[in-house]
Amino acid sequence: xxxxxxxxxxxxxxxxxxxxxxxxxxxxxxxxxxxxxxxxxxxxxxxxxxxxxxxxxxxxxxxxxxxxxxxxxxxxxxxxxxxxxxxxxxxxxxxxxxxxxxxxxxxxx
Amino acid sequence: xxxxxxxxxxxxxxxxxxxxxxxxxxxxxxxxxxxxxxxxxxxxxxxxxxxxxxxxxxxxxxxxxxxxxxxxxxxxxxxxxxxxxxxxxxxxxxxxxxxxxxxxxxxxxxxxxxxxxxxxxxxxxxxxxxxxxxxxxxxxxxxxxxxxxxxxxxxxxxxxxxxxxxxxxxxxxxxxxxxxxxxxxxxxxxxxxxxxxxxxxxxxxxxxxxxxxxxxxxxxxxxxxxxxxxxxxxxxxxxxxxxxxxxxxxxxxxxxxxxxxxxxxxxxxxxxxxxxxxxxxxxxxxxxxxxxxxxxxxxxxxxxxxxxxxxxxxxxxxxxxxxxxxxxxxxxxxxxxxxxxxxxxxxxxxxxxxxxxxxxxxxxxxxxxxxxxxxxxxxxxxxxxxxxxxxxxxxxxxxxxxxxxxxxxxxxxxxxxxxxxxxxxxxxxxxxxxxxxxxxxxxxxxxxxxxxxxxxxxxxxxxxxxxxxxxxxxxxxxxxxxxxxxxxxxxxxxxxxxxxxxxxxxxxxxxxxxxxxxxxxxxxxxxxxxxxxxxxxxxxxxxxxxxxxxxxxxxxxxxxxxxxxxxxxxxxxxxxxxxxxxxxxxxxxxxxxxxxxxxxxxxxxxxxxxxxxxxxxxxxxxxxxxxxxxxxxxxxxxxxxxxxxxxxxxxxxxxxxxxxxxxxxxxxxxxxxxxxxxxxxxxxxxxxxxxxxxxxxxxxxxxxxxxxxxxxxxxxxxxxxxxxxxxxxxxxxxxxxxxxxxxxxxxxxxxxxxxxxxxxxxxxxxxxxxxxxxxxxxxxxxxxxxxxxxxxxxxxxxxxxxxxxxxxxxxxxxxxxxxxxxxxxxxxxxxxxxxxxxxxxxxxxxxxxxxxxxxxxxxxxxxxxxxxxxxxxxxxxxxxxxxxxxxxxxxxxxxxxxxxxxxxxxxxxxxxxxxxxxxxxxxxxxxxxxxxxxxxxxxxxxxxxxxxxxxxxxxxx
Lengths: 109, 957
Prior knowledge:
The complex is a heterodimer of chains A (109) and B (957).
Chain A: H1 9-21, E1 25-26, H2 27-37, E2 42-44, H3 46-59, E3 62-68, E4 74-80, H4 82-106
Antiparallel strand pairs in A: 1-4, 3-4
Chain B: E1 34-36, H1 60-82, H2 88-109, H3 113-124, H4 127-136, H5 141-159, H6 161-190, E2 201-208, E3 211-217, H7 218-227, E4 231-245, E5 251-258, H8 262-266, E6 272-273, E7 288-291, H9 293-300, E8 310-313, E9 316-323, E10 338-341, H10 352-355, E11 359-366, H11 372-386, E12 399-404, H12 405-410, H13 413-445, H14 447-456, H15 460-496, H16 511-534, H17 539-543, H18 550-586, E13 596-600, H19 611-626, E14 631-637, E15 650-652, E16 656-658, E17 671-677, H20 680-684, E18 689-692, H21 697-701, E19 706-710, H22 711-717, E20 727-730, E21 743-750, E22 765-769, E23 783-788, H23 792-806, E24 813-816, H24 817-824, H25 826-860, H26 862-871, H27 875-905, H28 920-946, H29 950-955
Parallel strand pairs in B: 5-10, 7-9, 17-22, 19-21
Antiparallel strand pairs in B: 2-3, 2-11, 2-12, 3-11, 4-5, 4-11, 6-9, 7-10, 8-9, 13-23, 13-24, 14-23, 15-17, 16-20, 18-21, 19-22, 20-21
Helix pairs in contact in B: 2-3, 2-4, 5-15, 6-13, 6-15, 6-16, 6-25, 7-11, 13-16, 13-18, 13-25, 15-16, 18-25, 18-27, 18-28, 19-23, 25-26, 25-27, 25-28, 27-28
């Protein structure tokens, strides 16, 4: 069985920011969302999700507030801030450029 | 995400240098952030390489700005969070919610409650680790851990008070002593002179064996000035003398006559007003003056309307044209209040004073690019030309000397300063070695603790940071204590310093030196403290009972050997100085100094016109002193032994012509000190008359000229011993060389008296009777010697009253002769005290280091000692082993040190008196002292070793 490749920390940040761009949600929701949208390819380790969320919050790209969840339990909801929005766009364009470059290299004759 | 981040180090195997597998904290493994599910028929997920996409050049600036503004905002947010702490409860609740939600999803998928919970937890990963990672993300986390480190370090210090106190004391002593001495030496060696481009200024003039401070004469000066090449400008001053400011409240000042271009040559501009004009510097011009800043403040309160004010100096009107800057000094460091133009009659310099001109001291500014050596070479031909004006008898004695003003000011102090500098640095080295040794020992003791911490998960960064914090805390505390000590030491040094070393009284702790010392301490502590932590703890350290790293022990041994060697050198130097000083103290002066008071009455020139007036006054003063109760005798002399008389009172052996005998060849050298004395001089100073008789009171008014020779002079002039009754003529140099002066009758031979300073040999001396028939020989420079049994405090007021009856304004200076003589020994005493202090400090530090090493050795090997004792070694065996080890170190260090001391002491030769540089007694005493102290230092831990209980030792640690 092939070893599972790992993603870098910055990539996880990008995924979280993009997920939150659709609306505020709690940590569990973010993990589920990423898993669903990537068709079960990307499974976020929850042990690393929460440190990442806290880190992003300290940087000011997302903000958090407590609120009731779907089944009326208290949960912490995260949402994107304007700075986070700008950061998302910047990182996204970087990512796309890098993917294109790698694609060119892989497809070279 | 621009660029690549590597907060989590990549996973790799590690091996130690010796090939053993290294222990790694389990938390250094890479965190799996996002697992990518493998698919069967496609590449296994995506792997992303950690490099940055190349930036487009055109957007480089823009993205930079954006990045910077983003960083700024980020900074403020982090700062905000720094001060608001997240409650850990929040985090717990959040994580719990996540796990619950996962459990519900699992239940909905059909698992049992127990299974769903288990699966949820597996899926989550480490809860504890997540919680820790969350708190690590907090901005204030770094400082929290730093504060933890500090508290841990302080606890460690409290648990090991011996180590802490020793390290602090060592650092404080090293830094304190070095800083204090460097401040002093800095003042001596590197003081900036208050002139523009002071390194281009030189003092130039003639030197001869009797007068080593260069001077010049008017005739020479003007000839040199008109024909010189290497100097931008030349100038002179004629010395500072006393003058009176006669005004509403008269005051005695110091006035100096200077050339008109004196200030411009030195590069000094008056604070207000102007310098002298050339037309003010011609003879008989109306006098103008420049006053000092101190005088400006004292009398005129720094008001600007002092300019063009007219004042009376010595009865003549003088106009103030400017004020000197506050830090102004004369190049020869005399105190001066008023500068007056010299108003030299240039033409007359070739006729005055026997055709050579008036005495003066010349200074010059070198042209750019001209060195002192080059200036000497260029002036040589001019000097040769002017040499013809020196009478040929002693033409070859005179040389032209050009040297920088700083050299002239500091001449004697240089060597002493360098010796002190060397000693201070030696002590600093010993202190650093001690600190290194202490930290090394502590590191060795903590090796196991660090290994355990590393195994529990501390990153290397964390461990290094912790040891670094400890080391820096110690270093800062030690440096602080050191600065306080330095201040105290500096005060002590200044209070015992002799007056001969200029500017010592103004020495302060220099900020540069303090910073240098602190940096040195910090570096030393940081390197020594961190070095043990940098090594990867071997896994064997976890299991080992005692830490016994061979390399470390060798290093510590080496350090102790080096320390002992250096302190042997210091001890040897100090011992030489102490013996030299004691020789100085015990020197037989040839005269009695107890119960003798010296009285000087320097009269003011203007009130006593002509030397006849001086003679009158002084004779009356002598009579008045004789009548004081308790005074047994009063003698007068024109100079005081053992101080070397300046060349005004000295002559050469070849100048003495015995009537009726062939003249002495002029090359038989030697200076002869000459003094004018009254008959009671010999009585007061208890100088024995060995042949013939002393002078009598009647001879003072008689018509003849009488002379007494010192025994040395009598032996030189009359080897057959028939001095009494012979007649001697001395060569006369004014106007030109002639031998038709008065013929002196030799009436007696006196014992030798030290007359060339405390360290010089006895020079031959001739005493002329100060007769009343030569009033021109009387001047202000005479000193009364009073023999009295009463204490000076009692006699002095009576004396002042009597003198003031004769002249109320005459200043009277009274000093016991013992004090005057003791002052001559000030400089050697100071050097000896300082060097002894350093030697003692160095020895103390070295011995503490030795004790530490041996004690640590014993502690480390407690188990081994226990085993030996259990196997049958007696206490004596153990003692011998430990002693042998300790004294072995001492022996090595001592041998190296003695060798170095032999080499170094040769440099001190010039500073010693009566002691050869390789004096065997000094070195023997050093060896004895060192052995004794080292033996004690080794004995204490050795005795502790013998008291080891084998039962306890075998089981310990």
